[in-house]
Amino acid sequence: MKKIICIPDSFKGTLSSAQVCNIMEEAIHCHFPLCDVVKIEVADGGEGSVDAFLAAVGGKKITVTVNNPYFEAIESFYGILDGNVAVIEMAAAAGLPLVSGRPNPLETTTFGVGELILDAAKRGCKQIIVGLGGSSTNDGGCGAASAIGVRFLNSQGQVFVPKGKSLIDIADIDLSGIDPMFNDIEIITMCDIDNPMYGPKGAAHIFAPQKGANPDMVILLDEGLCHLASVIQKHLKLDVSTIPGGGAAGGMGSGMVAFFNSRLQMGIETILDLVEFDHLIEGADLIFTGEGKIDSQSIQGKVPIGVAKRAKRAKVDVIAVVGTIGSDIEAVYDLGITAIFSINPEPVPFEIAKLKSKENLALTMDNIVRLLSIKPQK
Fold it and tell me: Domain with 232 in it: what CATH number?
């Protein structure tokens, strides 16, 4: 083995992508000490995404003062990668930890996320990647849009910054205040769910309870998002109501499309493009990927499948090392996964298994690479 790529997702609740990469590398070098191991950290757009991108591509972290979900000044951050690309994780300005002890999606705003986007634009970034995940908000991205100059007006013609509870008050939307510099900026939104903006499977019903909403609040929030979609349809001539992923981050997926002219893209596709994966795997003998659990849901765009699809085109084998192998996984082999190995040596509850995740991963990798190192019999 001369060249092996390691590009695993994190094992949620146990190991980060970086930790998995390092364990994989150690096992490979134990049996193939001269092998070129290329490690690519993966993040899903939530907390840790900026650090993962900086580790994978290089760049610098920018610190800036913005508003938190309750319009209070906080020190936040984003990354500028080599190549003048900004990476923003919305959780850095609108995440759940920022409202610890007082969650209320009726009152929270994404305004600070817009301030991060605006700062990156003013620094000359021509591509901005925004990761949606871990939000405390349900404002349809209106707060972020307000920060870059979008004007929301009520029935009396008054301009205001809509929050979850006041989406229902929007009567008109004016995009004329957006700085023209955004015309030359490509904005990509990382989104790994396919929930629509509103409805039974929408942002409010599925995710708002995790943000502190009771059943009555969920209904109000859903009605607000439904109303916002209708106003966008009327005034911007754009239907965002059924966009897959539009419900991400309290409807911000739809908001990014409507107000930022962004496209929604699976996080793994964004990462693979950014690191020039198709070029990187040239000459690779094998690819290791993985995640906490691989199952029928994985084919909807999780890391191992995104990697496998690219690898299949390049005719490079892919081994997935995972915590748990679920049911109905036959389709993943057709999509490019060569083999799957679980790191758990015995069937035990997750709360027990996670305590030995590091050791179990190391043992599994060692066994796989031992097998790979067997010389063919003459």
Answer: 3.90.1510.10
Residues 230 and 337 in one domain: no
Q: Are residues 251 and 117 in the same domain?
A: yes
Measured distance CA(284)–CA(368) in Å, rounded: 17
Please give the model's pTM, rounded to 2 decimal places: 0.87
* Alpha-helical segments (H) within 208-302: 215-236, 248-260, 267-274, 277-280
Torsion from C-alpha of 103, 219, 46, 349, nearest 10 degrees: 90
Taking the CA atoms of the chain, what radius of gyration do you get in angstroms? 22
Determine the pLDDT at residue 302.
Answer: 85
Query: How far is 321 from 304, CA to CA, in rounded Å?
Result: 9
Query: Residue 55 has what pLDDT?
Result: 86
Digit-coded pLDDT (tens) for 12-63: 878 989 999 999 999 999 999 999 999 998 876 677 789 888 988 899 999 9
pLDDT of residue 377: 47
Structural domain count of the chain: 2
Q: Are residues 257 and 117 in the same domain?
A: yes
d(CA 44, CA 268): 7
203 and 251 inside one domain: yes
pLDDT tens for each residue of 103-115: 999 999 999 999 9
Residues 112-148 have pLDDT tens digits of 999 999 999 999 999 999 999 889 999 999 999 999 9
Give how far Cα 315 sits from Cα of 270, 305, 312, 332, Å: 21, 14, 5, 15
Q: Do residue 77 and residue 191 come from a single domain?
A: yes
Q: Are 81 and 59 in contact (CB under 8 A)?
A: yes
Is 191 within 8 Å of 244 (Cβ atoms)? Answer: no
For 304, the domain range is 3-40+286-372
Beta bridge partners of 15: 11
CATH for 320: 3.40.50.10350
Tell me if residue 62 falls in helix, strand or coil: strand
Q: Are residues 136 and 155 in the same domain?
A: yes
Separation of CA 273 from chain center: 14
